[in-house]
Specification:
By secondary structure, this protein is mostly beta strands. It has two domains: 134 residues, Elongation Factor Tu (Ef-tu), domain 3; 79 residues, YaeB-like fold (2-Layer Sandwich). The chain has four helices and twelve strands, in the order E-E-E-E-E-E-E-E-H-E-H-H-E-E-E-H. Strand 10 and strand 11 form a beta hairpin. The radius of gyration is 19 Å and the shape is globular.
Length: 240
Amino acid sequence: MNYSIDPIATIKTPFKEKFGTPRQPGLVPSAVATIDFHQGFANSEAIRGLEEFSHVWLIFAFHLNWEEGWSPTVRPPRLGGNTRVGVYATRSPFRPNPLGLSVVKIIAVREEGAKISIDVEGPDLIDGTPIFDIKPYIAYSDAIPEAQSSFASVAPPQRLTIVFSEEAREALEEARGNNPELEQLLVETLQLDPRPAYKQKGDDARDYWTLIGGYDIRWNADGDNLAVTKIVPQAAMKSS
């Protein structure tokens, strides 16, 4: 039997591409996103009582992988990107049904005329991700202190030290009026080291570009340090 389901909403996040998007939710608390309900699902009755919960689960589509098919084994970043395990033992987007599950913190539930939105904190989703369902996080049953996580250990990923070049600092100052949270967003995101696991060990002389919060961020990493060398608004990049 085939099932047909429609997205109820779309989420707007600071992350415009897979590279640089956090691999798990809650790792970048300064990242703020907005869930906008689609017409037909923007019903004030449907969100009644939601503001009494602190967190919600989002069921979403890995929409950029929707047409790519699935693989029975994948190579998780936590295992260095070389060891294969079964797809059902991972959160890989390359699944038979490319659906994901993510928990986010509610900041506000807003109704503006016919428009209904939810502002949330700490997403690990790419901008424009379709949302299929929203469910409240239930602390007594969803949090399991004794749970085991195999290779995805309870230890959070190691965080790099972020430094900004003089040019990058000047760009941050210019952006501060319209985007005062940009520096914190960049620090929390880049501390997680977006590079593939095999690039995180040994020498890596490459310069990287990452799209975050409407800016092209140029950076390079050396050991435990990551240097941001340039910050350019995406509009300026498109016009150049």
